Amino acid sequence: MDIHQSAVILLLILSVSSFTHGQPDNIKPRYIKFLNQHYGPSMTEQKCTSEIRKRDITGNDDGCKPVNTFIQANSNDIRAVCGRGGTPQGGNLFKSNQPFPVITCKLQNGQRPPRCEYGRGKRSTRYIVLGCAEGWPVHYEEGIPDTKKTG
Asked: Where is the signal peptide, in residue numbers (predicted)?
């Protein structure tokens, strides 16, 4: 299992390296962590527990993360929220100009990894609010429901 997790992390880092050209070195680890936690173009509602375990996503206290949201879009569209694709919200926060499909995974039971169980995720369409650093997303703040769609 440890080899599998290491391989996934290595693959993520290698795939991200093509996205980070021209990125300041101090931003790169934060952006990679953001992608690991929230980038999910092929995520499904059924994969919450397995993806969160595979990606070793934990809460701030290294316990089970209560909620994690995966954005189902390509990395360029997500990054655009920190520029022309988003509207400043104050501080380093930007709200997307267009809604994104997301899957939100909520902790069902468990307190410490690897016993975190998330059950079935919820698919919805939301305007995403991201924390950005020098034009790069580094934090998922929240999702605001798209009232024009159900979900």
From this structure: 1-22
